[in-house]
Amino acid sequence: MQIKKAEVIPVELTLNESVQMVDLPLIDHIYAIFIRIETVGGRDAWGCAVAHPYFTGEKPEDVLKTCQTCADMVPDLHPINLEFSLSLLAPIAEESPTALCAFDLAFHDLLGLAADMPLYRLLGGYRNRIQTSATVPLASVPESVEWALKRASDGFRMLKVKGGADPDEDVHRIRAIHRALPDHVLRLDLDGGYTVQQALDVARALQGRLEMMEQPTAGDDLTGLQQVTFHSSIPVFADQSITGPASALELTSQKAADGVSVKIATCGGIRCARQIDSIARAGMLSIMVSCVIEPALLTAAGLSFALSSPNVQYGDLDGHLDLTNDPTLPGFQMEEGWLIATDTPGLGCNVNLS
Q: Does 22 have pLDDT greater than 80?
């Protein structure tokens, strides 16, 4: 197998409905950048990433420029010596984990195609399915209950409820959803919106109703996160505090959380996610594989990683569900809130961008 060329394809993807996050304007679209690696034998490998300032702080035009620089190098790289090839691209994408993620996925897909094996098996093959939560966006309490009921009607039994703007309203929101769906597992994602005291007050008020709280304090406040983790009766997971292996090592050494949320899209790809998993496993922290609003190709990468490691105990891989024009044709299946892998080689997806 020999690489013929790499193509960079930016695409604007729209959402079925606009979503709200703490301290942000409504999100009604995202910019995805797809990478197509064409081989001499005619087989195409695909990667992608999401260029949105909220997710990694990067501007789409900067990501696109970095991707093009990397693409120019790709024909000279070895198609299946993955560590070697990505180590040459990493310095170019040092300031752009988004660009690195796109090429990381493409080379992992290429490796699976060359081996004629699904990527999750190449990475470890611990399981072939995982249950995922579905997100309830930040909204009024009645609207949140309506969203939760809709997700439940779609077969999901785990719900990740967005909050962080108003602690009292978050308590009312969770209690209302719990009354409507008493048998559902609920997680509260606060996107760094609380102070330490607010987080502890909410944890006490919602004890017995929540499986976990995700990123209660600001992403750069490890001391605050550590204090919440130490005093909370509800498990605390870090999200925005994790930007890559170095931040995971710092968080683990300080025991600042009970678990770590890993997003392929923001940490730099599968290679970096596996490094974070090793660090977390050594520190006896659980992993939740999570997502951003993303094409199904990225979800397939998160799923491949999630299925490969016994340390991944939680799934949150629903970021593709509300896009209207995703060009990805996923190979994985979704059944009653479970993501199930198939034996299609590589990431198992086709991309229609003709």
A: no
Averaged pLDDT, 161-175: 97
Would you list the domain boundaries of the chain? 3-116, 121-351
Q: What angle do CA 100, 101, 106 make, to 5 degrees?
A: 100
Tell me the fold of 121-351: TIM Barrel (3.20.20)
- pTM here? 0.96
Distance of CA 43 to the CA centre of its chain: 27
Q: CA–CA separation, 238 vs 221, rounded Å?
A: 11
C-alpha to C-alpha distance for 251 and 140, rounded to whole angstroms: 33
Could you write out the DSSP letters of every residue in 197-221?
HHHHHHHHHTTTT-SEEE--S-TT-
Helix (H) or strand (E) holding 174: helix 167-180
DSSP state string for 274-307:
HHHHHHHHHTT-EEEEE--S--HHHHHHHHHHHH
CA distance 110 to 104: 10
pLDDT of residue 17: 84
What pLDDT sits at residue 306?
98
Neighbouring residues of 297: CB distance < 8 A, sequence distance ≥ 6:
34, 46, 47, 48, 105, 328, 330, 347, 349, 351
pLDDT in tens, 49-93: 999 877 888 999 999 999 999 999 999 999 999 999 999 999 999
Cα 224 from Cα 256, distance rounded (Å): 8
Which strand (E) or helix (H) includes residue 93?
none
pLDDT attached to residue 42: 80
Q: Does domain 3-116 have CATH number 3.40.50.1000?
A: no
Q: Is 161 helix (H, G, I), strand (E, B) or coil?
A: strand
